[in-house]
């Protein structure tokens, strides 16, 4: 990735009763990064520290190369923030509100108005932007919240639970919009969620924290593509009444580890094996042909991120459970 | 909208091609001081309902007119009767119309700060290049300025009227200047008290009631006690009791140092030494209000 957008070094935040962050060290590059954790895992605390609004108990952090302890105002000029909770006054229009927020970020009056019109259009608010926000749907309000975070053209935005309260369609639209913030606008994104599943589709990189500790930080391609798993299903014949078992034994004999696809549709008839490369496909084809069996299917299975954590304890599994 | 380029098409008026490409912003970013000024001007305009709904303009504008109307009448009378002085001193004007001022503070202080708390807009402000002190100063300065406009405008009407009536220029200018100092102090004091009370509650209704209570109940209690003390011939007590309500504080300061006649029962305001205490208490309250607001908003944060 080269450039580091956010870097923390044994960052800790302790309150009298709880430790919100516990020696968190993480490097985040440009692109869309998901910050996943259960409620209370320390996501919002981390954002507050990164905005320079709350001092860390120990450790240090940099955003866009600026130290959060001393350069808070400079960071906030270059960064956008969309809070989790409602933050919109109902009696003003989206345009008035976003213009005001643009000026609060330091944009001159004319630029504030132009950028507001542009940004509201980009997030998908058109004629309704002149009406008071009080009459908006949840989805529209989320768009206004996103617009105020983008209006000053930041280099990085923090989006705290942007899909909260949205229906499945609204959720997909918001995730698509977040993706565009990076691909079309060139703005890096740190998006939090307690749902791992929805971030998998949107993010380049996922950081998982639990109880203020780093659980894992890696790119979503690492999560889902480091190992290609093949699922194969075969027919039975008179020679081999249990075709599945025959294939497994034959593959075992050639030194390939095969698992039962328990928990998958067609359990007992599905075999899972790790594909090392092209030769694995050839091997499977040859073995099945030699046995005279019919190949019903052979497909690549993409891991779900949640499976990466499935061997964790029950509480953790719940914490990062697959959303949607 | 510079990016929407209407193009000439056969369909004509309704058809537009929207250039939806994202444009980045390379222009100036004016930073913290500019953001603070923007918040100040937005809050000051808001205090008179400008940039807000028509409904929210009604009360502040009405109170402004009510404040200026008596001044207009006095000037008309002075000009018509060729009087050789104005019927009311510059310094007395705000004291006489204190109910209108209190009502204005009660309505506009919650409007200025309770809304941001109630709709949780405060975190958005602090996610921008400003600090807590910028928010507090902008809000405080805006309400104090709004109050100064409310209280100084009628004095200006009186002054212009007095000059038109060809009253003594030096006399009038001195009185006008003293009046301005007095209402400036009053604006700072009332704005501070109003904002501290309003910043405690996100509910606007409670805020209005609480501000009215603080301003009028203290005045009622203090003037009652002063009247009793006066009847019992203890004029010393009258002066010290006056320290306990905002409007009698201002009255005391201006009768000691700004040549005003006191509205205290018995008509004797504080002496110069006592006046110093009045000034110190007034400045202490203003500083205290600022300190309390800072503390309050340090906590609200994100």
Automatic annotation (TrEMBL), chain A:
<dbReference type="InterPro" id="IPR027417">
    <property type="entry name" value="P-loop_NTPase"/>
</dbReference>
<keyword id="KW-0813">Transport</keyword>
<keyword id="KW-0547">Nucleotide-binding</keyword>
<comment type="similarity">
    <text>Belongs to the ABC transporter superfamily.</text>
</comment>
<dbReference type="InterPro" id="IPR003593">
    <property type="entry name" value="AAA+_ATPase"/>
</dbReference>
<dbReference type="GO" id="GO:0005524">
    <property type="term" value="F:ATP binding"/>
</dbReference>
<keyword id="KW-0067">ATP-binding</keyword>
<feature type="domain" description="ABC transporter">
    <location>
        <begin position="6"/>
        <end position="236"/>
    </location>
</feature>
<dbReference type="InterPro" id="IPR003439">
    <property type="entry name" value="ABC_transporter-like_ATP-bd"/>
</dbReference>
<dbReference type="GO" id="GO:0016887">
    <property type="term" value="F:ATP hydrolysis activity"/>
</dbReference>
<dbReference type="Pfam" id="PF00005">
    <property type="entry name" value="ABC_tran"/>
</dbReference>
<protein>
    <submittedName>
        <fullName>ABC transporter ATP-binding protein</fullName>
    </submittedName>
</protein>
TrEMBL record, chain B:
<feature type="transmembrane region" description="Helical">
    <location>
        <begin position="90"/>
        <end position="107"/>
    </location>
</feature>
<feature type="transmembrane region" description="Helical">
    <location>
        <begin position="140"/>
        <end position="164"/>
    </location>
</feature>
<protein>
    <submittedName>
        <fullName>ABC transporter permease</fullName>
    </submittedName>
</protein>
<feature type="transmembrane region" description="Helical">
    <location>
        <begin position="205"/>
        <end position="229"/>
    </location>
</feature>
<feature type="transmembrane region" description="Helical">
    <location>
        <begin position="58"/>
        <end position="78"/>
    </location>
</feature>
<keyword id="KW-1133">Transmembrane helix</keyword>
<keyword id="KW-0472">Membrane</keyword>
<feature type="transmembrane region" description="Helical">
    <location>
        <begin position="176"/>
        <end position="198"/>
    </location>
</feature>
<keyword id="KW-0812">Transmembrane</keyword>
<feature type="transmembrane region" description="Helical">
    <location>
        <begin position="275"/>
        <end position="293"/>
    </location>
</feature>
């Amino acid at each position: 990735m080269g450039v580091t957008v956010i870097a923390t070094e044994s960052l800790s935040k302790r309150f009298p009763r709880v430790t919100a962050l516990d020696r968190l060290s993480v490097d985040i590059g440009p692109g869309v990064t998901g910050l996943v954790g259960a409620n209370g895992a320390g996501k919002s605390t981390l954002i507050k520290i990164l905005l320079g609004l709350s001092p860390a108990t120990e450790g240090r952090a940099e955003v866009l190369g600026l130290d959060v302890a001393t350069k808070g105002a400079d960071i906030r000029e270059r960064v956008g923030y969309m809070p989790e909770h409602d933050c919109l006054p109902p009696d003003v229009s989206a345009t008035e509100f976003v213009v005001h927020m643009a000026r609060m970020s330091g944009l001159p009056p004319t630029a504030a108005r132009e950028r507001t019109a542009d940004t509201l259009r980009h997030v998908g608010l058109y004629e309704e932007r002149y009406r008071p926000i009080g009459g908006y749907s949840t989805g529209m309000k989320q768009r206004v919240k996103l617009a105020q975070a983008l209006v000053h053209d930041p280099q990085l935005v923090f989006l705290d639970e942007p899909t909260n309260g949205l229906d499945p369609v609204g959720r997909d639209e918001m995730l698509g919009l977040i993706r565009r913030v990076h691909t079309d606008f060139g703005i890096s994104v740190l998006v939090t969620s307690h749902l791992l599943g929805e971030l998998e589709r949107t993010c380049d990189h996922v950081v998982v924290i639990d109880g203020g500790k780093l659980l894992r930080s890696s790119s979503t391609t690492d999560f889902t593509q480091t190992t290609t798993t093949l699922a194969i299903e075969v027919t039975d014949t008179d020679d081999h009444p249990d075709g599945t078992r025959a294939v497994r034994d034959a593959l075992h004999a050639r030194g390939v580890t095969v698992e039962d696809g328990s928990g998958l549709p067609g359990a007992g008839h599905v075999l899972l094996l790790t594909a090392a490369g092209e030769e694995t496909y050839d091997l499977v084809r040859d073995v099945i042909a030699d046995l005279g069996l019919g190949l019903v299917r052979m497909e690549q299975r993409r891991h779900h991120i949640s499976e990466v954590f499935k061997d964790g304890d029950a509480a953790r599994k719940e914490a990062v459970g697959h959303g949607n | 909208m510079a990016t929407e380029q209407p193009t000439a098409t056969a369909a004509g008026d309704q058809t537009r091609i929207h250039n939806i490409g994202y444009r980045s912003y390379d222009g100036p970013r004016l930073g913290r001081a500019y953001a603070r000024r923007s918040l100040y001007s937005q809050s000051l305009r808001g205090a008179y309902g400008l940039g807000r709904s028509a409904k929210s303009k009604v009360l502040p504008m009405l109170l402004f007119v009510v404040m200026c109307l008596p001044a207009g009448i006095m000037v008309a009378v002075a000009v018509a009767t060729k009087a050789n002085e104005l019927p009311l001193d510059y310094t007395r004007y705000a004291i006489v119309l204190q109910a209108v001022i209190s009502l204005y503070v009660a309505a506009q202080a919650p409007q200025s700060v309770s809304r941001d708390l109630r709709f949780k807009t405060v975190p958005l402000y602090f996610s921008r290049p400003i600090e807590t002190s910028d928010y507090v100063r902008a809000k405080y300065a805006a309400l104090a300025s709004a109050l100064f406009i409310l209280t100084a405008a009628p004095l200006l009407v009186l002054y212009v009227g007095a000059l038109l009536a060809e009253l003594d220029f030096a006399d009038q200018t001195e009185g006008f200047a003293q009046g301005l100092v007095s209402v400036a102090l009053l604006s700072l004091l009332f704005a501070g008290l109003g904002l501290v009370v309003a910043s405690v509650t996100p509910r606007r209704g409670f805020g209005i009631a609480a501000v009215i209570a603080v301003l009028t109940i203290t005045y009622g209690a203090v003037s009652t006690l002063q009247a009793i003390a006066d009847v019992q011939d203890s004029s010393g007590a009258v002066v010290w009791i006056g320290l306990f309500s905002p409007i009698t504080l201002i009255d005391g300061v201006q009768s000691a140092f700004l040549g005003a006649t006191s509205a205290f029962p018995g008509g004797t305001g504080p002496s110069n030494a006592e006046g110093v205490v009045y000034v110190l208490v007034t400045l202490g309250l203003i500083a205290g209000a600022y300190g309390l607001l800072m503390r309050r908003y340090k906590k609200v944060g994100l």
